[in-house]
């Protein structure tokens, strides 16, 4: 440590803030300061009510350590003090680097106040963007309107892009969507219309002594899979399978004739040892399904909510929805998704797979052959 720097720290300990700041400046001329040195100087300049000089020191610290949380917080606070229009953006950058765990009380208070500045800045931008596109978006409908709105939310970083990341089978060039637009699946109306009949059969099979329930997630503990660990063989998430990896589960299917008749009309994959699949998914009260992805983007999943207590939600990528009884939807389970039943009651959803509508018949055949061949070698294990 240089003699001048030592004198600066001694002055700081004695409360001579102005003298310490000048000594730090003098010491820096003959050394290579660390980010901590610059932050010490910035703190002194801020205490001396010299925000512009403090900001200069913080910027010097960030030049050496661009993602330093404390430096980013100090910079955001200084810009706010100066009334700079960039303060909201600076707080967004700082909060993006917030470490996990509790913060010291004074810092936590500053961060909470900064979050409000950030939120107000985003809200102002959101209003400005919505106003700028209002006339154009007024003419848009359906999926086009959704894409426009999602574009704005992505720009505001309220959402972010999510991509297909299947665990095993990625088919290139397919449309990546979290929830696919309903108009691509005209048979959804038939599924919705059959809700009462399907629910009645589900309740009957649940009450039957012949029903076969199984944990939804089943894989060998030694497999290199972490996303399922809390729910592997866990009875909190169980299933009544009607068709499992292409095999009809007679004990359950025989009690659900209307449901099975409907399934025969749907474009389900026919893949040896893998598909089709159809089941009633039972999620216990106060149970969360952690973020995860499925095995293939060549198939999509359909949910038909049958018994949905209040507050049960489902997130795919950047969009979270509440399940609503009788309102089916199609989503890409190769995009990160999770679910929660926060209620005190059982949640039941019917789930089945369908081909991705972008695939031509020859492409479906190739996917089926490749998947079946890999499955013969055991690459799929026993997870979903």
Radius of gyration: 28 Å
Tally of separate helices? 13
Find the CATH topology of the largest domain: Jelly Rolls
CATH architecture of the largest domain: Sandwich
* Mean pLDDT across all amino acids: 90
Task: Tell me the helix content.
Answer: 40-55%
Query: Using DSSP, what is the number of strands?
Result: 12
Distance between the termini: 60 Å
Strand content: 15-25%
Structural class: alpha+beta
Q: What is the strand and helix layout of this fold?
A:
Blueprint: H1 3-13, H2 17-28, H3 35-47, H4 51-64, H5 69-81, H6 87-96, H7 105-137, H8 142-155, E1 179-180, H9 188-193, H10 195-207, E2 213-215, E3 237-244, E4 247-248, H11 250-253, H12 257-263, E5 278-283, E6 287-292, E7 299-307, E8 313-316, E9 319-322, E10 329-331, E11 337-341, E12 347-355, H13 361-376
Antiparallel strand pairs: 1-10, 2-3, 3-4, 3-5, 5-12, 6-11, 7-10, 7-12, 8-9, 8-11
Helix pairs in contact: 1-2, 2-3, 3-4, 3-5, 4-5, 5-6, 6-7, 7-8
Attribute tags:
13 helices, four-stranded antiparallel sheet, Jelly Rolls, eight-stranded antiparallel sheet, alpha+beta, 16% strand, Serine Threonine Protein Phosphatase 5, Tetratricopeptide repeat, 2 domains, 384 residues
